Amino acid sequence: MEYLDFELPIKELEEQYQRACNIGEESEVDVTATCKQIEKKLKEKKKEVYKNLTAWQRVQLSRHPNRPYTLDYINAICGDTFLELHGDRSVKDDKAMIGGLGKINDQSFMFIGQQKGYNTKTRQYRNFGMANPEGYRKALRLMKSAEKFDLPVVCFVDTPGAYPGLEAEERGQGEAIARNILEMARLKVPIIVIVIGEGASGGALGIGVGDRVMMLENSWYSVISPENCSSILWRSWDHKEQAAEALKLTASDAKKLEVIDTIVKEPLGGAHSDREGAFGLVQEAILNAFEEIKNLPPQELVSGRMDKYNKMGVYKD
Question: pLDDT (tens digit, 9 = 90+) per residue, 186-228?
């Protein structure tokens, strides 16, 4: 288990708890009371640490190496029912963008999302979760298939941005993302979007238009990352904490600005500390969102979605 700087007090208590438990197992000494006392302190410390996180600390949590990724959620929620589908039928199969059919209970869904890697080899294989144009075109192909067979769409957003390479621009990165935004706005089936980690720029928007948009408590959603914002404004990454606060990128900020509909609470300590708990909460959030919109006729779905996004950015002095 890896710990961030602000999690070090928790690490110390967890190590104390583990040592006390080991002593009880290896000897005849009764350490039950001591373990309970440390466990109580640990819970209180977690509440204290995670209660008042800054925007930058939430960004750090969203990137935690032990945090679940898209396939983790899909496999946990769908089990053996998930069938991954590949290719955009034009260029190739983008490994940074995954999608396929799966079931939650008896309800079928089309799942789509960005996938990051767990180590150096898989991060390179997944291109660090940064999709090329063919990834967005694959996502659109799957959405159109879902529309054809009247299946709801669930999108998991977790990307530092669309791939900014020369070859991606040559193949029409901007057009692919713009096309997805247009087509998702008028797709005639329910779309549920959930930001599970990083939601950066057009890379997130390319699969981010939905009837219900949710964010996990320790995820972020913004036009630019704090580091890149800092480098543009201050010519240095040293002001990334200040940039994170100014960007209003946290789930609570997005909810206040009506960019999202729901904040999905994470287990105490974050999704990385209780993965099974996080899977259950995300599954519940998806089913609740689907229950709200499943009976809406297609025209009402589309008009409601259009109204939702037309209202964004409108304000009065």
Answer: 999 999 999 999 999 899 999 999 999 999 999 999 999 999 9
Question: pLDDT tens-digit profile of 94-132?
Answer: 999 999 999 999 999 999 999 999 999 999 999 999 999
Which conformational region is residue 152 in: left (phi greater than 0), alpha (psi within -120 to 50 degrees), or beta? beta
Q: Output 83-92 pairs: Cβ under 8 A, ≥24 positions apart.
A: 85/142, 85/145, 86/138, 87/138, 88/134, 88/135, 88/137, 88/138, 88/141, 89/141, 90/134, 90/137, 91/133, 91/134, 91/137, 91/171, 92/134
- Please report, for the chain, the start and end positions of each structural domain, with discontinuous segments joined by +: 16-52, 58-310
- For the chain, give the mean pLDDT: 93
The architecture in CATH of the region 58-310 reads: Alpha-Beta Complex (3.90)
Task: Pick the closest to residue 2 from 305, 269, 201 (CA basis).
Answer: 269
**What pLDDT does residue 68 have?**
96
- Cα 105 to its chain centre, rounded Å, is 22
